[in-house]
Amino acid sequence: MFWTIIMNGKNAHTQFSCICQNVLPHESGTLVDVLNTNLTKLFFRQLNYIITLSSSDLKSVQTFMPHKKSAYMIESTYESQFGKIPSKKDARKKLGISAHALLFFGFVRPYKGLKYLLQSLPSIVKKMPELKLMIVGEFWSDKKEYIDLVQQLRLQNNVMIVDRYVSNAEVPTYFAAADAVVLPYTSSTESGIIQLAYGLNTPIITTSVGGNVDLVAHHKTGMLCLPENPDDLARVILEFYDKKLEKPIKKGMKSNAKLFRW
User: Fold this and answer.
1) What's the chain's average pLDDT?
2) Which of 126, 119, 87, 85 has its CA nearest to residue 104?
3) Could you tell me the sign of the dihedral formed by the alpha carbons of 238, 241, 242, 243, in that order?
4) Category of 215 on φ-ψ map: left (φ > 0), alpha (ψ -120 to 50) or beta
């Protein structure tokens, strides 16, 4: 589609640039990867300049388009979209949460790693039995595997699922109610959820993959753990609580806001 737009708009004076959120899709497979890479190259060859939203995507561009002009910038935050952010007490009262809470927010897709977060919970709730995990977002595939996992791990009392589109008006309530946003991605380019968390000043616990490392400094603006590793994720979450890191990380996030100024 984009290639067609360029070919119909080409002339001696017009230049074309593209802002890429994902240079290549997260879902992969040998044939799919070959097709995606070749079609992307076909399009990129027509561009004068490419801007990516993460350093990992910039590396992808430079790997198969080494002579193309390219750079990356960090996406802005979105707090201007929201009105007044409620207090944690008011947000929890509205959601019916009475104790510590973690938030998994956004589309549920395999690369988002939700299963690893669920697998990490038993060792966490053993020490924090009142902890509540809010899973907020639409499921791209059948959510039965996640429901089954919750039941197998006996986490019914510790998990709240909101399987629907969440409007802008509702977003601040979920972020304000959470002690931290947990993003256990198995791969990442850039995550709009991290920008949301920065804008709403909610600490981030995520994996050290892709563009996550551009934005999260361990112990300063968030917490990093190994991908696809429930034990390490549990360790980092418990460290977050044991060392009472919520306030210092919030302070670090505010002082790092310059990252997102365009």
Assistant:
1) 89
2) 119
3) positive
4) alpha
